[in-house]
Amino acid sequence: MEAKISRRKFLKLSGVAAFSPFIRLGDVVSPRTKAPTPTDFGVEKRVPLRCRMCAQQCPAIGIVKDGKLIKMEANPHLPYSGICGRSRSTPAAVYNPDRLKYPLLRVGKRGEGKFKRISWEEALDRIAKVLKKYRKEAPEKVVYLPRFTSAAGIDKPFWHLYGTPNIISYADTCHSAGHDWGLGGYFGRPISPGAVWMDYPNAKFGVLAMRNPGGGLCVYQFGTFFAEGKRNGLRLVSVDVRFPNESIEGAGHRWLPIRPGTDPAFHLALAHVIVKKKGYDEAYLIEKTNACMLIDPETLEPFKAVIEEKEEKKGDKTVKKRTMRYLVWDEAQGKAVFKSQASKPALLGEFEIEGKKVITAFEAISRALERYTPQWAEKITTVPAKEIEAIAEELIKNKPQVFVDTGWYSERYANSLRQFHAIGLVNTLLGCWEKKGGIGGIPKVKLHGVLPKVKKPKRIQITKYYQKKEGYPFIIPKAGRRFVFEALRTGKPYEPKVIFAMGQNFIGGSAGSVELIKLLDKVELIVCMTPFMDESCLYADIILPDTMFPERNEALHVKFKQSFPTVAMNMKAVEPPFEARPGDWVMVELAKRVLFSEEFEKYFGDFVRGGWEYGWRKQLEGLDEKYPGITLERLKKEGVWYGKQNYKIKKKTLTHEIEIFSLTFLETYKKFKEKGYPFAEYANPLPSWAPPFWWEEKKGQLAEDEFILTTGFSPLNSFTGGQTRNNPLLREIWDQIGLDRLWIHPERAQKLGIQDGDVVEVFPAHNPEIRATARVWITPLVHPDALFTYYGVGAGVFSQLKKFLVFLPEHGVNMNHFSKLHFAPLQGGHATQDVIIKIRRA
């Protein structure tokens, strides 16, 4: 490997040219004009797939020749299609000799990595024996952790029939809490990264904060959309701890390095300038938001608001719809009236009504913003005040065809909830929600279940317990994996006894990895099903070799990150190697062993007899009337169906408006202030600054050998799964471009006597015994307080992985190994970067 990489070479080799999802759209060619290919002559076959080399399931086409997958292409039957370097490396993962080949049984201590080969029959019988015991005693103590599940549509019905409510995803480690409720306060419901889209093609100016659309995880449709925007003249500013080359390289784009974790201060300062210069969209705020709502300035309560309830029919159910009618000051009448009766609601002002002083919600927001000047933000973020002012002026000038990107990977710091609340505020001030050139909503098609509907068990779910009882109201219960380990630590509400992980690397993918493994002695049975060994497998009792996505049929999928409602197919293209089996087969086999015979027949009988042909038709039953063109025949041929683009964002607020003054936040804020909760301020509906680090108030600042370890993605890596981390093709490219390197700023490297290319030991200040090695790249393209590494590249602390994954880079750092098992206030995110990291020459 070269010891020195120039900035120019880094930009050239970083995957933009050969592996970017959007630089070259050669795959998007009309079938009518395409030249004949081997497929036309029957030499090759084209199979509809959904790529699972990361979590996004981009629609793709697998090219198969002589029974082997030889190539991946973007699906051409979409308005915006694209795949990235991860997807193109799929054949190298499918035929990787390091794949798990047979079921394995642990024979040594957990973590030693000692296993013996057993048959599928023995593995399933052993698992079923324990499951049957807990079904009688306490089925809720069995936890199912799906991620890259190969049993979609089959697994959840099985586990609900079994009796456990604990089907828990991993998103608390990436976005589900801080991101989803930070933005969700404006809409009365969680807003995930898959709920909104930036209209890159029609935007004039945008701010990228903690987002790299050219090099992150989503390429369909975000990457290709983003490329079109750049071709159309979209100008960008990226505010990031490191230079995100894939996104902003080119004329007219700027990078501003920011101190790790201080993004909320930057956004609050933007909002300050917008309000001070009256650059907000006044008509939008009055019409679309509750900015004119009259509130008590002392309690923040809406003044004399009225809540009305009425019942509505939704299918077979009757639901109650609650609506708040609130007072505004009508300047035309000179008095307070309900908003629906006002002809000229006041946006700003203080008024006296019946001897009581009241102000508008927007007046309260404006007053709260007064302290958050660009000069204040510069001291915290190191972003110059003049740059903040210039960005705010660009946003004002080009609104509403602007955006502050709503981001993705949020669970980094204790203040992530406040960060995304501040991002939402800026976008609301500019009036760019639901606007062309701004931010739109993502519509979804609702499919039927593959199996008959199963009622969810009434037993208390672990995450719902912590949401209701332990001070984490903004948890997303279905995605709070880390609270499984909190339950092990505290015994509340009970200790899990079985963990069945399908595709989840719950140790390597969670902050506090080293702390987590100490809790696993309380678990009787750990089962991991995955194609590759990972940190969690090292601690499993039974390992089941999973298929990869080209080796199986899957349920139809609708949850894509794009502006069109889409239904996409994944069909089996090649046979699985060795003894790998798909998850749907495993679930059926466990159901035969664990469920009563009449249960099995009622819920699984038709699927077992009809296979996926039956399952797909069941999912599509009756949908062709609402969505013309959705047919199984079309999906088998083209792989996808898509509908019309939409900008509407679904709201569940009491006012049925975008709540710039969040009543969802207000309710939580009042409740926790009354209880004296120390972090109640995190739920303040008004703009509010919160520091990013738990340690900052005690320690003050970093020492010369201390850093904040930060992470990101490129089109050539994702997560901690072996499909990219241990991919021989990607390893060749990584070695050329140094993707496994640790970025260090020249000023800091010089003080520590570190040279470019040196191997260093990396360890957390709170536990120096936990160490990993990394090769450094000295570059000005990273903030001085930060160390930057691409996510999950090497074995890190768990060196025993190297004997199972020979294509792992020699060095590499996984920040989760160093982080702590702590939880961000109110929302429970894992705050993975909230830890001090030290380095020294190895």
UniProtKB/TrEMBL annotation:
The keyword 4Fe-4S is assigned to this record: yes
Keyword Iron-sulfur applies: yes
Domain 4Fe-4S Mo/W bis-MGD-type: 44-104
Record InterPro entries: Asp_de-COase-like_dom_sf (IPR009010), MoPterin_dinucl-bd_dom (IPR006657), Mopterin_OxRdtase (IPR006656), Mopterin_OxRdtase_4Fe-4S_dom (IPR006963), Prok_Mopterin_Oxidored (IPR050612), TAT_signal (IPR006311)
Cross-referenced Gene3D superfamilies: 2.40.40.20, 3.40.50.740, ADC-like domains, Dimethylsulfoxide Reductase, domain 2, Formate dehydrogenase/DMSO reductase
One of the record's GO molecular function terms: oxidoreductase activity
UniProt keyword list: 4Fe-4S, Iron, Iron-sulfur, Metal-binding, Molybdenum, Oxidoreductase, Signal
Transmembrane intervals: none
Family: Belongs to the prokaryotic molybdopterin-containing oxidoreductase family.
Entries under PANTHER family matching the protein: TETRATHIONATE REDUCTASE SUBUNIT A (PTHR43742:SF9), TRIMETHYLAMINE-N-OXIDE REDUCTASE (PTHR43742)
Name of protein: Molybdopterin oxydoreductase, catalytic subunit A
Species name: Thermosulfurimonas dismutans
Lineage: Bacteria, Pseudomonadati, Thermodesulfobacteriota, Thermodesulfobacteria, Thermodesulfobacteriales
